[in-house]
Amino acid sequence: MSDDELRALHARAYGRDADIDGDPAAIARLRALEAQAAPAALVVTVPVREVPVVSVAPAPPVEEAATDAAPDEFGRSGELPRTGEPPAIDAENAEPEHPSPSRLRTLFTPRPSAPWLWLGAACIALAAFGSAVVVSALRSADPRLVAEIAVDPDASWPESFGAKGPDAALFEEFAGLTIARGVEWLSFDESDAMCIVAIDTEELLGDSGGFQIAAWGCDAGSFPPVIRIEVTSAQPQALRDRFGDGTGLELIMRGDRIEVFADR
Q: Tens-digit pLDDT profile for the chain (264 aa)?
């Protein structure tokens, strides 16, 4: 094969003045020369590296790989099913996918225990008692003087009071009550204590011969005799009309007069 011949055929086939299309023999010769001029196929042999074989043990069945978990915060067991079957669902007791608001409150709202309930009840009771004490203290903190009762020198000493001592005396009637001092049978210990007593006047002067003591009290050291009365339905009607039920009265003897205080 001549390179000059191949170049000449290339010029006839691919050159500016190509005319090989009309010469089948020249076309055949060009193809033959081009085939001869083509390089032989390059064959590369790559060595194959051996890959080590690793044996892998088969995975255990699902029923042998079950795992037990500790109960969760709601007391439900975390044990997984031991078979390949899906777990059975109790339709009656199954949790809904979206719990209701009441269920959410049950899950996440702590319930008060019995001791806390008892403590709350005790606090409420103490608060109510404290309020009552405060109200009572406010009522009695500043009692007002409502009357002064003087000794009645013309009053007759009742026989039911026993012998009249030198210091014994009757005071003026006050709202249906007769008040006396130095009544013999009030000095139980035969001491020199001075005592005063308040009695329903209507009962004292009645024909029944008996009467009921509304209140009585004696002196103590330097403190004068004091009696306290709460106006109730058992008191004379005149006393109830003047002060009203529930009113507290305090009668303090100071010499020959008695000061009457009311808490309202």
A: 567 888 888 888 888 778 888 888 888 888 888 888 766 444 444 454 555 555 556 666 655 444 555 566 655 655 555 555 555 655 565 555 555 555 555 555 555 556 666 677 777 877 776 665 555 554 545 789 999 999 999 988 888 888 888 889 999 999 999 999 988 777 655 567 889 999 998 888 877 667 778 888 989 888 999 999 999 999 999 999 999 999 999 999 999 999 999 998
> Looking at this protein, which amino acid is placed at residue 89?
I
Instruction: Determine whether 239 is exposed, middle or buried from the number of CB atoms within 10 Å of its CB (0-12, 13-18, 19+).
Output: buried
Q: What gap in Å lies between CA 225 and CA 107, rounded to an integer? A: 68
How far apart CA 137 and CA 233 sit, in angstroms, is: 24
SS3 of 28-57 = HHHHHHHHHHCCCCCCCCCCCCCCCCCCCC
Distance CA 178, CA 132 (A): 33
Q: How many residues can be counted in the chain? A: 264
Query: Taking CA 152 as the corner, what is the angle to CA 222 and CA 237, rounded to the nearest 5 degrees?
Result: 95
Contacts of 248 (CB under 8 A, 6+ apart): 139, 140, 143, 228, 229, 230, 231, 262, 263, 264
* Among the listed residues 78, 88, 77, 80, the one whose alpha carbon sits nearest the alpha carbon of residue 62: 80
Is pTM beyond 0.70? Reply is no
Q: Is 61 helix (H, G, I), strand (E, B) or coil?
A: coil
Rounded-to-integer distance, Cα 180 and Cα 168, Å? 7
- Beta carbons within 10 angstroms of residue 30's beta carbon: 20
